[in-house]
Amino acid sequence: MTTVRPLSAVPEQPARRTRWTDAELMAVDFPEPRWAVPGLLCEGLNLLAGAPKLGKSWLSLGLGAAIANGEPALGAIDVERGPVLYCALEDTGRRLQRRRRQMLAHGGRPAPLLTLETACPTMAHGGEALLCEWLEDNPHARLVIIDTFAKMRGADPHGMTQYAADYAAAVRFKALADHYNVPFLLIHHVRKQGADDFQDMVSGTNGLTGAVDATLVLKRTRGQADGVLHVTGRDVEEAEYAMSFDANSGAWTKLDGPAADYQLQDTRALILRFVRDYPGSKPAAIAEALELNPNTVRQTCKRMADKGQLRASAGGTYHPPDSGDSDSPDPELSHLSLCHSTRPDQEKHL
């Protein structure tokens, strides 16, 4: 990828049909959408957002290598093998080599169909042509990863509102994804402040999430699951996946069972520890201190009180179980609290 073919040199494809009568539309036999990862990454434009050092780059690199080799993505989802382009625009060749060697040393395999790129101009200054060139050279491409979106979007047009600028920047990638019927994955960041709706955590305006076909947000939990991957989109069903990260192999895997099972256990352990330190707290104060969803904390506190794991008082405050209850605490909760208090902090991941 040392030369960039001008856009005018990219062969044109037949124009897409955009108008039908209702009867014509009902008679059309549309092909099924192409999936890079079934149930997770579909054709079109996908956005993966997460906090810095959470492991987004490890996740995207692992997905790319798995698809390039036709191996189960996240250790659990069967995929179709095919070429993948991974634009690691915040990395150097040395850093990418170190990561791949780490992955290969712990059971990974070389991926001949994985193309790694560390330098790419912005979309308006040659980046679009570079992506077109690779897609033309790889007609059976399965996925294009841009890590990060900010590195390729370029400067916003003068005079645009931020909403319009975000939308326009995403649409340039979406046009390529739709033209070639290849899933694109943009890696992005989340806001510093939390939000009840995970889509509202994506950095930028709603113009960005409105332009993409699917939004994925990776969040770290404080308990058994190293992260929860929230997914929603036009062709993908809304879902949450509990995720685990292996720092030795750099591999993310999807855990069995609903993410809520892992989150609920972790939330109860956190609440119990907080209430022991600050007896008489209300759910709103607990949620704010622990950066948890207020409604989740309110419901969890009530359930814990019903099971004797907390003691509710007048005014909506909660206290640790009284002395009579504390001699025989809930075994499951005690185990979680002990594990949580003794578990060493995990290393932060890129």
UniProtKB/TrEMBL annotation:
**Stretches of the chain forming a coiled coil according to its record:** none
Note the Gene3D superfamilies from the entry.
Answer: P-loop containing nucleotide triphosphate hydrolases, Winged helix-like DNA-binding domain superfamily/Winged helix DNA-binding domain
Question: What segment(s) does the record annotate as region Disordered?
Answer: 308-350
Q: Which InterPro entries match?
A: P-loop_NTPase, WH-like_DNA-bd_sf, WH_DNA-bd_sf
This chain's protein is named AAA family ATPase
